[in-house]
Records
---
Amino acid sequence: MFHMVQYWPLRLITQTSLSSRCLKPMLTRPVAFAQIWKSWFSNHSLVGNKNIILMGPPGAGKTTVGRIVGQKLDCPVIDIDDDVLETTWNMSVSEKLQDVGNEQFLEEEGKALLQFSASGSVISLTGSNPMHAAGMQHMKKNGIVVYLDVPTTVIMSRLKSMKVDRIVGQSPGISLKDILQFRKQFYKRWYDIRVLCGGDIAAEVVAEKVLDAVKRYQNSELETFISTRSSRAGRSMEKDSHKYFSDVVTEGLAPDGGLFVPERGLPKFTAGEWQSLIEAAYTERAQVILERCIHPADIPVSKLAEIIGTAYGENFTCSKIAPVRHLAGNQFLLELFHGPTASFKDFALQMVPHIFAYCIPRSCNYLVLVATSGDTGSAVLDGFSRLHDTDKQRIAVMNFFPEDGVSPIQKSQMIGCQKENAWSVGVKSDFDFCQTAIKQIFTNSDYTGFLTVEYGTALAAANSINWARLLPQIIYHASAYLDLVHQDIIPFGSPVDVCIPTGNFGNILSALYAKMMGIPIRWCICASNENNVLTDFIRTGVYDLRGRKLIPTFSPAVDILKSSNLERYLHLIANEDGQLVAQLYNQLENQGHFQLRKDLLEKLQRDLVAGWCSEEDCLAAIHSVYSTTGYILDTHTAVAKVVADRLQDRTCPIIISSTAHYSKFAPAILRALRIAEIKQNPLSQLHLLSSYSPLPPVHWGLLETLKKKGNEDHQVCAADMSVLMSHIETLIQNHFM
């Protein structure tokens, strides 16, 4: 715990003189305020009458960058230290510190800010200004606060090169690094825009980044979304019907049946920007990446930070959130099962409900419908059940699953995740009926209109075609690479391969997006089970569903024949040719197949390779890895392991996505480990696995869910559209009315 004496402003004191400036040269004479005011009204900055306010730690270069930005904009430049504090006090900052002492200095500095007013200027704050709440609130009223985010290690190096031997307010036993880390919470509280400034980046480059960031902040209309099936001609005729991030989160599916993608593509990070995140925690990496993917007009950075903190807080059992574990040789596991429902879907579905709650209109209630055959149901139910009470009152979830088409553990988990705003309904049919029924309900305008008029309730979807579901997955692929760099496995810039068990193509698409954003991924290896339509497609360019029947396997999350997110990737490699994508998917719908042009297949094969795994090989891999390492793979990870062994060339590390915890598939795991006695009770199965002291341990969240009494309590309905619609209406009446 820091005492008050440690909150004092950071002022630099060199070995040469107490009053010398370490970060900037002293002005020979403070500019007269009359002259400043005159120039304020005679110049117009990038943001009109707004100020650009530069904030950051000592050594971040705020003053130098501010001068360059001011020159480029031809507007006044104000340094709070020199032009405000020393003018107001009629003494140097160092003299003021000596005069009033550390405890009073911060308050005096804040008072000076409260008396200060400017417009149309570039303002460089002191390193300690953000610690005075009232002063910063005053500054933000007429300014855009830009945080120059420099890694602490870089700041330490800069201060050392300037021969700074101590920091004012630094108590004995408290290191400079600790104080700099502590102060970050104040910088993060106030900024509107973050500019990453890692390494030896020149001040001129930082200034350009500031200008670009401010332009983006002021122009939210540039970050629009389009459908994967829309033509360029059609888009040019529909300029008045732009879709923004908030719209696509709420709507999910485009009106023409396509999927939403950002019109200008995803942001690209420089190598230096990625390197500045090497030492960052997972949540910090998530914040930085999402800030660049979601415009602050849709979700301000402060709200985004709140959402990330809630999503990846205590409900994840590992503090690293998505740790990377060495398996053997050049193979590493990206563990994505530490969330509350033990699958990779928690990464999106612990976050998306809070994004959804923020983006939807306050004037309407929403019922989120979900069809699932496995992990999605429990992840959606758990995520939406964690909303704030006020949001639960206006957002509810109904999950439909095939009553006899899921494993006992999956069924128990979905039922155990039911809460006051989240319900599961078993349907006496298969998954195809559940999914088709929901699609028909969404397209039944008479029924959806009736719900809106009669009950003030709109329907929404939270399946993997929603754009917001993909963004959190980009984060963990990027984070895995940065972890390997941080662990000195590779230097930044060296390539890695990733191998991902793939069904609906969302997870591997997120890895491809991470590659586009600057993460050095060489190959994305698509791992299929016996439902290997994607493997055939990647190898041949022919997507052919004719004569194929879905085969139930030990890895149900990839038991998919029609991979919906593949459409986004085809749109990307086709240079946003929506007409071509629409043609391909119309042909798939009507004829059951399509074939890529040769040039598109060549593009695809520069990113993707693919293989598939039999049921026997899946179980054998689980047994082999456990026998040699003591580690238990789940069935999906085992599929990826088998494919990775076959396709990797061992010239670089390969990161295998471990997408679920083995606890969810206990019968298959017990069979793979050749344990003869397999009890039917799911809880007994987990206790049996736990008795082997496995690595990792049995998932605690799954155990707690299965221990709950009343897991057998849920509604079951016939495979009839009118019955499902009746259930929906009854739920709305009971929850919202």
---
Amino acid sequence: PQEIVSGESEEESNGVNLMEFSDEILLHILSYVPCTDLVLNVRRTCRKLATLCLDKSLTHTVLLQKDYKVNKDKVKQLMRDIGKEIYQLNMAGCYWLPSSTIDHVTRCKNLVKLNLSGCHVTSLRLSKMLSTLQHLRSLAIDVNPGFDASQLSSECKATLSRVLELKQTLYTPSYGVVPCCTSLEKLLLYFEILDRSREGFMLSGQLMVGESNVPHYQNLRVFYARLAPGYVNQEVVRLYLAVLSDRTPENLHAFLISAPGSFAETGATKNLLDSMARNVRLDALQLPKAWINGSGLLQHLKFNNPFYFSFSRCTLSGGHLIQRVINGGKDLKSLTSLNLSGCVHCLAPESLFRKAEDDIDSSILENLVVSCCNLRHLNLSAAHHHSSESIGSHLCQLLSRLKHLLSLALPVCSITDVAANVEKPPTASNLVPQTFGRKVRIGIQTYPRNLADQANQKIESSVFWSLMGSLRFLETLEVIGSSFSSAMPRNEPAIRNSLPPCVRAQSVGDSEVAAISQLTYLQSLTLAQLPNILTGSGLINIGLQCQHLRTLSLANLGMMGKVVYMSALMDMLKHCKCLRDLRLEQPYFCAGAQFFQALSHCSSLQRLCIVSRSGTLQSDAVMSFMANCLEVIMCHMFMGESLTVCKNLQQSIVRSFQADRPALNVVIFPLLHEDLTEVIRDVPMRHLDEITLFKSRVAEEPPNLWW
């Protein structure tokens, strides 16, 4: 704000005065400023801004979910100044705010939408707050151990009875507030219940005493459930589904259950699906793989104008996909998001006698592309989609027709040129075993380090180069090895061994990475298990050309015994001024002074996660980096250092920077330590879900599932 005032004379001398712009233009500019800054700082600079900063267009919706500088006092002052003007308040993931902060939300008497996911809220505080919010129609909360629905007042229950949309994250077996929400139209459930307590006791999926009230689903239009790994989560979600199986809501149009691993079908769930097949027409569908595999369910379900399908990890064949879902191309122009991750046979006519590595049938993909021409989000990862050398078009050539794509996930082996892959002799890196054994000294081919020189090579003629050139508006890209698995899975010890990359992927390396630099509007990039990375030169091109890049995740690139792309990565980071999230997973990664000096150029960086078996770090370099990068609020490092080194560094960071960064979350811990899972459970869900744990995120959920 001081800069605005002090800069007026300079602006006037150049013939430009910010205050001479129209109110409409100024309001548009101010819409990019966090609401706390507008109300508490900017409006105090001059009379004109004092009026504009309180305009309804700026105070109607207040977003605090990623305002990492906000604290309790700022929230208190904000609610005092504009509480009555706020209709939508998003505080999701504000884990650093004390629970007493929620008391100030009672000033927002006109609230219609409220998101408190990830905030500390007791049942008593929730009751007091909701009793005053009579206009509330949309609510998101966490249900933690100790939650007691009997503590909710009658006024609170009256408010809940008018709520139409509820998002509930469960950390303990409970119905939460669902039985009180008698008018629900949209219900989103996130099950994060652990099988064991901190003391090591096995937990039960049975609900707490007093939880016998039954949910009311008669008006339900959207049902979504996402389960973290664990048996208890499956037990509890069955209790929620039991009511649905008795009577399926007539207006149900979206039914989605995301469950990892095996989630067996029961008599009750079969009755539910049979009832859905008879009585409803769906627009969005996702089911556990065991509910679809081997059943004729998809043949009987009816769809209206579907916008989202997820058949992740199902054994659905391409023949069934075309016949039962795409229905010969009829009425699928409405489909905008499709998740076929881990659906290994979805591009083959049948799956009975087919191996996962066999060539795809390009006619199936062509049918899919023609039928679903308006797709914006497509996930084909975690499968071997090998294009035929002689029959049909290449997968990349067919996907280039999807001009509306905004996000795309592909397996590494799907982007290689078939002819080049067959004719090209093995490179030195192909001959190096992908293990952690003795390092083999090899000659490194020299690659050009800028885009102009790359263009002189034949990479422009590759199918992947052409694909990247045709998807100019792509914002999210994931290229992940079909056999890649992260060294840090959920709720389990760290994985010590990784599977070798697919043979077809052996030629994918620097030139393919350079092709990605054509994506001018790219915001999020994930590259995992690209075996032929020799220098990482393509990363520099991305840093230069993709100036909107905000999220970068790199894992297991090149040889596993050495970080061959370190020099290129450091050059790349010097150009990433908008980068906010960086995740690196690579054995033997050296997080030293040179790396952190390069990373310090990323002035917008907020979150850093490094996962490295046998990796090393330099404590002084980390401290210097944290001092230079003032926006960093998350530092997660799982390396090969000793527990003592890790604990000392973690304590030093917290002691030095916590006071000025209220949201600071630091976890530095040995990757292979037996207590890793206990440490992980204390990481805020926002960081754990968005960056710390590796996963494919394209088409993971329907678009605009929650505001």
